[in-house]
Amino acid sequence: MSLSGFLIRMNRTEIESELSSLPLGAFRYFDTIGSTNDEALTWASQGAPDFSLILADEQTSGRGRMERKWFTPPRSALALSLILRPTNIENAHPSRTTGLLALSLAESLLQLGLAPQIKWPNDVLLGGRKVAGILVESSWMGERLDAMILGMGVNVLNASIPPADQLLFPATSIETELGRPVERGSLLREILSRVLDWRPKMGMDTFLKAWEEHLAFRGQQVQVEGRSGDPITGELLGLEPDGSLRLRNEHGRSVTVRFGEVHLRPLA
Ligand code: ATP
Ligand code: BTN
Predict the structure, then answer these.
(1) What separation in angstroms does the CA of 76 have from each of 25, 103, 158, 162?
(2) What is the model's pTM?
């Protein structure tokens, strides 16, 4: 494809053919949508099969955590949501699903020759800047976990990088870091193949280790801020089995930070 051919809307037929070798439950593509996660939640409640994929070229109300905005301008990013019907593995390790997407993207970026890092809990960085964000949501039927929605936005081409004044953390794109554009369909296929490979292994130590190996700021002093209470400062050691973050505080004690509304920053 010529370079100018990269800044075009995704084409449903081309994407379907790119993904044809993958065992997707079902597939819905949108040129433009509010939020792929919203569509996935609705579709899951209407019976979407396991491993169904929603993909959009553009989102007008993309969401991050706590209803923060996620920008997905047209022709430049990946915005996707995967619907998982929980198996025993997801039921046993629900909090590992964020790691499943983060690790699958990180390995795909590594294969492109980049050096991705996972900024716990839900971002992927290139060159210390955010290239992707992950939002996992659950839908319940009474006490039973009915579906997990694994949403991810990836800044692929330069045009996907939001204006700096709208960001709390600097952003980048794969194109910026690689110095050349990347085709979104083949990247998507690569990510999904890795999700399929890792999913049955999510309960294993090898999964946790692989996730941990890609963590940003390992061995460095970091600060974790929550919504309430004092920030926690310490050396970032790694992950607990449930995907929580393990730090060593200034008194040498091990401290666990659980998933939630927390912000991780390196200490300057
Ligand atoms: P943290 O401080 O832990 O990274 P955060 O404040 O970045 O959290 P998140 O919920 O992880 O918040 O991500 C949402 C934020 O990401 C938005 O508030 C916005 O600043 C930023 N953002 C939105 N769209 C993009 C994008 N396409 N690329 C990079 N960053 C984005
Ligand atoms: C974050 O960093 O807070 C997570 C951002 C998650 C964005 C993705 S884009 C696809 C899916 N649809 C949404 O509305 N959000 C997620």
Answers:
(1) 26, 22, 7, 11
(2) 0.95
